[in-house]
Write a structure and sequence with these properties.
mainly alpha, Arc Repressor Mutant, subunit A, two-stranded antiparallel sheet
Length: about 70
């Protein structure tokens, strides 16, 4: 899967992955979803985001989760 909506730029948000070069970190979008917000409510609150942005943020998170092994105490 090509994630063309997830971008990094050292001059935007300190190089954190963002949505389409906007100053909207992927971690913020994922945090909203984790807190129980729905895709629809996020898209209403942030009209510059698009449904595909949410889908790619989730795909990005899934890829990261698949790549790293984290030990839980």
């Amino acid at each position: 899967m090509r994630l063309n909506r997830i971008t990094t730029d050292p001059n935007i948000c300190g190089g954190k992955p963002c949505v389409r070069g906007l100053r909207f970190p992927v971690s913020r979008l994922l945090g909203l979803l984790a807190a129980g917000e729905t895709s629809d409510s996020i898209l209403r609150a942030y009209p510059y985001l698009e449904p595909e942005d949410v889908a790619q943020a989730l795909a990005y998170a899934a890829m990261l989760a698949d790549e790293q092994i984290i030990e839980f105490a």
